Amino acid sequence: MHLPRSGALAPSSRSGPLRISVLGATGSIGTSTLDLIGREPDRFDVVALTAQSNTAALAEAAVRVGAAVAVIGDETAYGELAERLAGTGVAAAAGPDAIVEAAARPADLVVSAIVGAAGLAPSLAALGAAEAVALANKETLVSAGTLFMTEAVRRGVRVLPVDSEHNAIFQVLDAENIREVAEIILTASGGPFRTLSLAEMAGVTPERALKHPNWSMGRKISIDSATLMNKGLELIEAHHLFPVRPDQLSVVVHPQSAVHGLVRYTDGSLLAELGSADMRTPIAHCLAWPERRPAPVAPLDLVALGTLTFEAPDRARFPCLALAEAALAEGRGAPCVLNAANEIAVEAFLDGRIRFLDIAAVVADTLSRARGAGMMAEPASLVDAESLDASGRRLAAAEVARRMQ
Ligand code: NAD
Ligand code: MG
Fold first, then answer.
1. Which helix H or strand E contains 153, and what residues bound it?
2. Ligand 1 atom nearest to CA at 28
3. Tens of pLDDT, residues 304-363
4. Is 77 close to ligand 1, i.e. is its CB under 6 Å away?
5. pLDDT in tens, 135-188
6. Cβ(51) – ligand 1 distance below 6 Å
7. Domain 11-166's class?
8. Architecture of domain 325-404
9. Where in the chain are the domains?
10. 167 CB less than 6 Å from ligand 1?
């Protein structure tokens, strides 16, 4: 349970600009974050930026925002990064350990926007020396949510949700009356295949699956949105962020993506946050919290929108949602294995090695095998979580290979 507390990031408690690091700085969330930072350079003092392989984009961003250090995950790219940064005043480093070290540099806010379970070690490291972590990397909470949140509470580090649904809920959650929360509702756009039959989904290409109707996002989360696994991962994420039972969390499909999240109270009030489908709103909310600052986002035009619609998700056509719900109910190591299997399956689909509907099948079969092998213990440490993640990946890779034969 991690409730919003007031004060720690208030201007009175710090002097000067906000010291900020951005992990995954070249991605969709990372570039939106840097866009906001670049519009108010005096408000920020950029400590570290990290990326996996795009040295040109990383170096350009690091010089633009005046970062102290830029770190590239791919060790072989060190020379290229160092060359690009020579004489700029930005230090260069490379390798996964250097990303973890950068994450652990003292900062007021670390934005964790690496994709996948690769973000777990850096996100945990950020809890060591940051005042607050703005968490976009939902896979951290899915793979090791109990571990991460326990550590955040122990160290007194605030976790601010970047994910639009969770940020919406964070905004409308009444921490003073938390016992009167009856239900937390996540909205789902339904993705590009909302109205397709299973037979139609069988043949969809990665290109088609990557075309999200409302949001512009990284490749992995775009596929997760097409399978509705993203919403399943978000239920698990919400379970760790907000103090409610799994049966108090639900999903409603809302194709306009105007309402991002809702909280129902026992008195019948249903509070929602609405806005344009632009991640710069939740990111700006995290960067300014507990204040608010202007963001360069088109205001939501209710009259132009005209109609908001809601429908129940179809778990028969989107089995990934049901698989994630079952993993949430099962708890312990199940969400970690679910996430590992999904990452392997999505990568295989994007590479053209399996078909769209195989993603859910690979995840389901991996979970059954992991259960059979007695692998579902709750990860109690980073080593445990990484080892369970690796085992899940191995089982899933075998499932992918079996389907390619
Ligand atoms: P992306 O693919 O656009 O960017 C990922 C970033 O992580 C890049 O900077 C990349 O260099 C870095 N990265 C990739 N693999 C890495 C590795 N092994 N080690 C270190 N760094 C690595 O992804 P994104 O869409 O920006 O999503 C980032 C996270 O935010 C994901 O967890 C996603 O679920 C979450 N999220 C994204 C959105 C969105 O609109 N894009 C919305 C909500 C939540
Ligand atoms: Mg989301």
1. helix 138-155
2. 26
3. 999 999 999 999 999 999 999 999 999 999 999 999 999 999 999 999 999 999 999 999
4. no
5. 999 999 999 999 999 999 999 999 999 999 999 999 999 989 999 999 999 999
6. yes
7. alpha beta
8. Orthogonal Bundle (1.10)
9. 11-166, 325-404
10. no
